[in-house]
């Protein structure tokens, strides 16, 4: 029921409107019958009213003056005016105060019912819209830290390099900063206490104080990395560092007192602005670790190993450039999510991570999602989706658009790409480069590099590395080849460098891989 107030200086009209109209059947509860606008103003200062039915001409405060007060102070309250005056000036003034209906005396009951049926529809629509906005705000407040986390993790691992894109994402995530004017730092907390809860620690650290925004970007059992962003421009790097150190000491003390966690902290890198962070931060991380791949929705994947395996398959299809298989795999993923009845905010975090991986892969191919789908692509869209069906249909729409683009524009590799691949497969043991391959296919290195990434999903250097390591795996199956010879045979003159690349690609040293292969053959 919506709360209704009747205001008229003639008692018989007030009582007539009260008694002759079945307000409850129209969806209204009559809460006050007042004889002047002055009384109505006093009521409004104490209680909320949804709709006022008021006469225009009254002794102390007229209906138009009441409408003006409501317009300026209670703009959610609706006004319907009823009057014996039909002059245009009255109507015009009433409309300027957002009066939604203007009835003329004498008024038919049927007209009143028609007007208030319309008022009810308006109020219902506003209520529905407000509830929807409240839901969006709630989801946004839940997920904004997660979206910021993905943004700053991509910044700090070198996965985001387009300054204009970063500026747009900062605005979308409501970070009051730009890429040029705000210092930032990479800070690490190292845990001495085992079994640390990621959720508890991250909630404790998400903070915006002393003009600094702290965003956790990665956590495992040993440490937590976060970005500290100077929002208010400390006068110099020393004062910025001092503020971070002071706050981190407070966090450590709080962790010890509330959670019993022992830890220490240090500033890994200090940067003049986000652009320097984007270009240099990867130097501060161990390049053997892939922060992006190691961090996903901890609870959902830990408690649902099937989901973790299906996500791995989705990313495998993505890595192999098998775009056509992504839609089917997405359906499988969402079905597992649906059956697992996971909390909504974990599901949305999972999907943000999944489509962030997809976006990064397509950006590597110089194919931004919004270019493929011809419409803006925002992670924030996920915030507005509440049901399983909405999440499923949205994801499928994006993936189907991407697949259609690939089918139309990239179904067949240009002959130059195939010739470049043949060149690598034939001369993998030589000192080959993008420049030497480009000379073989009569293209500029820049152009070959760009279309190679578009059609294969890998840059040229990665393809060379993958080819060489694949050849090395074949050599390791044959015991007649010594390990130090294999590196040279596949194009690596420096044995130590060959070992490093091999382990990064396979997870094993060449010796470990050969031992594993021999052991498998004996079984």
From TrEMBL:
Keyword Cytoplasm set for record: yes
Domain HTH araC/xylS-type positions: 418-516
Keywords from the UniProt entry: Cytoplasm, DNA-binding, Phosphoprotein, Transcription, Transcription regulation, Two-component regulatory system
Modification type 4-aspartylphosphate: residues: 55
Pfam families: HTH_18, Response_reg
Domain Response regulatory, residue spans: 3-120
UniProt subcellular location: Cytoplasm
Chief place where the protein resides: cytoplasm
Top-level lineage group: Bacteria
Stored PANTHER family: HISTIDINE KINASE-RELATED, TRANSCRIPTIONAL REGULATORY PROTEIN HPTR
Protein's UniProt name: Two-component system response regulator YesN
Species of origin: Paenibacillus qinlingensis
